[in-house]
Specification:
By secondary structure, the chain is an all-beta fold. Helix content is 0%, strand content 29%. It has a four-stranded mixed β-sheet, with no helix packed on it. The protein binds calcium ion. Calcium ion (CA) binds at residues 37-39, 41, 43, 45, 59.
Amino acid sequence: MEGLSTRGGRINDFKMGIDDIRLEAGVTLLFTNVKKDLDSDGQADTKLLLSNGGSVEILGIDNLTEADWALIA
Ligand SMILES: [Ca+2]
């Protein structure tokens, strides 16, 4: 996924196996909080907390795996 700010954001069109999450150099993923409905639409979402204090909410996705982001820096 190009252009995603690691300062924070919300993604509502993430496609499993197509999009990935690119973290800026030095920024690591601290915590993945899955299966919470962040926007109250009845579908579980994922929230990623980043080492720089930012967070990214991925709407409509509750089954991200480490392979979706871990290898990109
Ligand atoms: Ca939701």
